[in-house]
């Protein structure tokens, strides 16, 4: 491929920007998990108050409350199913971001070494990723 003009410093700057956005995405997903968990706990249950907690068997350290598990209501169950279904989408976002960053690094490093064939291969591999498959969560690893 002729006509390459990569500025490694520019690539590095863009990778910093992408890294910052990836960090923001990670924080947003963590906040989503915490918020949905809090919403599930606050939603309540469909059982009477005395049955809302199930005692569990097992040893308890002296001075600690007995082991128990809160009952899960229909809203909490639905939120759990929602997150379970979205998990593959969240993983896909992270994997796609990581693959893109690593591909850019590999291509730039190959370019800097003067290995234009390897750079072209890395660029073509990045182009070959099927976004439609990743978007719909049907990617197979």
List keywords for this structure.
141 residues, 65% helix, mainly alpha
Gyration radius, rounded: 24 Å
Which stretches of 5+ consecutive residues score pLDDT under 50?
none
- The SSE string, one letter per element, is HEEHHH
Q: What's the helical proportion of residues? A: 55-70%
Any chance you could write out the topology, listing elements then pairs?
Layout: H1 8-42, E1 53-55, E2 68-70, H2 74-112, H3 116-127, H4 131-135
Antiparallel strand pairs: 1-2
Helix pairs in contact: 1-2, 2-3
Explain what this protein looks like in three dimensions.
The protein is mainly alpha-helical and 141 residues long. 65% of the residues lie in helices and 4% in strands. The protein is built from 4 helices and 2 strands; from the N terminus they run H-E-E-H-H-H. It has a two-stranded antiparallel sheet with strand order 1-2. Helix 1 (8-42) runs antiparallel to helix 2 (74-112) and helix 2 runs antiparallel to helix 3. The longest helix is centred in the middle third of the chain and has 39 residues, at 74-112. The protein is elongated and about 70 Å long. The relative contact order is 0.13.
């Amino acid at each position: 491929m002729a006509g390459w003009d990569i500025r490694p410093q520019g690539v590095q700057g863009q990778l910093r920007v992408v890294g910052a956005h990836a960090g923001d995405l990670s924080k947003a997903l963590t906040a989503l998990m915490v918020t949905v968990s809090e919403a599930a706990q606050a939603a309540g249950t469909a059982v009477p108050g005395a049955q809302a907690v199930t005692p569990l068997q097992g040893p308890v350290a002296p001075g600690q409350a007995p082991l128990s598990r809160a009952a899960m209501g229909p809203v909490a169950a639905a939120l759990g199913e929602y997150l379970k279904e979205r998990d593959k989408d969240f993983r896909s976002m992270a994997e796609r971001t990581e693959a893109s960053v690593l591909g850019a690094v590999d291509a730039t490093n190959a370019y800097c070494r003067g290995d234009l064939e390897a750079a072209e291969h890395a660029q073509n591999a990045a182009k070959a990723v099927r976004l439609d498959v990743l978007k719909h969560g049907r990617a197979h690893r």
